[in-house]
Task: structure prediction
Amino acid sequence: MWSDFERDVMAQAIAEARRGRPSPNPRVGAAIVRGQRVVALGYHAKAGLAHAEVDAIREAGSGAEGATLYVTLEPCNHQGRTGPCTEAILEAGVARVVIGCRDPAPHVPGAIARLEAGGIDVEVGLLERECTTLIADFAKHIKTGRPFVTLKAAITLDGKIATRTGDSKWITGEAARTEAHRLRDESDAVLVGVGTVLADDPALTVRHVTGRNPIRVVLDADLRTPEDATILERAGTRDTEVLIFHAANAAEARREKLRRPGIELIAVSRDARGVDLCEVLDVLGKRDVVRLLVEGGARVHGAFLDLGLADRAAIFIAPRVLGDAEAISFAAGEGADSIAQAWSLVRTEMRTLGTDWLVTGDLERKQ
Result:
């Protein structure tokens, strides 16, 4: 049975993990404890840099010897860009290791056996659900080759993302918009349909928080994106890569008008919805896009739901009511014939942001 102190320590490690942007590697956090005192915290900041365990060990120095290491994910047992964490733990003289969850696909299995063979007491499962949730994106990418997809939108109480004329600025307040930009910073790529580009002319960059811009992705079967669209303005500069997915038979004249440094046109199959989303996700996955934020519009959200390609939703809800049947809804897909068949948000969390609310959860649907 885990003590309240141990739960608190692992919660600190999880908070540390969230500081990192290590994609395509998983987010991992660690804490080193002597007695009832946390002597060091660590996290994996970026692919190629020290893993969380090593970061914490360096911070602890000689204090790691004989201590307990809490780590959110099973330590790696292979030589990659960095050395095996199992060996670093053994060399530091750590006496006990507490692991949140196992690696969903270790490059070299046997990490726990390696630690135990070196005389270290190993325990697994502290805050396991929370630690597993932390690496859900990594686990999906490892198992399927595709990114973990989060649908994001700001809606009114009656589920509308814009008026019938397309006006959506601003449904939510500044606090909610700031959080939306934080979600962009946490994502490897942000995706919209060409309808959103034409209606809103978004930049899709990170502005309200300090962070880095995700890859910007547009679904545009017929290459209707205007040459002067805001999303293309800074293409080619740092952190402003733009990918436009179009149908293979899109007009060559439109391709020529959009070709420029920083903009990549990618041909995929056409389907009834526009472009084949499965192909799009396969391409993004091969480019190490692990976390994909989908910002709409309604047809794009509906397509991801209809095809079962969305994993999570982040819905900002404003205390407003449009009261208009023709206003634009969150998702415009085929939908469900009954409430029982509707998508559900599970493992939900709810936060207040100014006068608005943010509801997040994993998407599940009964078959």
